[in-house]
Amino acid sequence: MITRFQIRTTGFAIFLLFAPLFLYANPVLYVPQASHTFETLPEGSTIQHRFLLKNTGSSELRILRVDPG
Question: What top-level branch of life does the organism fall under (predicted)?
């Protein structure tokens, strides 16, 4: 027969086993090229550049806002 105490201690043991995974799960943004300088261009030119962003962490990385310029 399983007692309430055994259920509680088993649940607590499982929590202690997996707690470090949740405590240290952080997103980490890796940007190999953080800036880019464009050459001189004629006024009114359209330009673009792509930046590589990579999450090297162990949880979801959310980019909520981007401010160009």
Answer: Bacteria
CA distances from 57 to 27, 50, 61, 62 (A): 4, 22, 8, 12
Burial class (CB in 10 A: 0-12, 13-18, 19+), 57: middle
pTM of the model: 0.52
Which residue matches tokens 């990385």? 61
**CA 20/CA 67 separation, integer angstroms:** 34
Q: 4-53 pLDDT, tens per residue? A: 555 556 666 666 666 555 556 789 999 999 888 888 999 999 989 898 99
Rounded CA separation 17/23 (Å)? 12
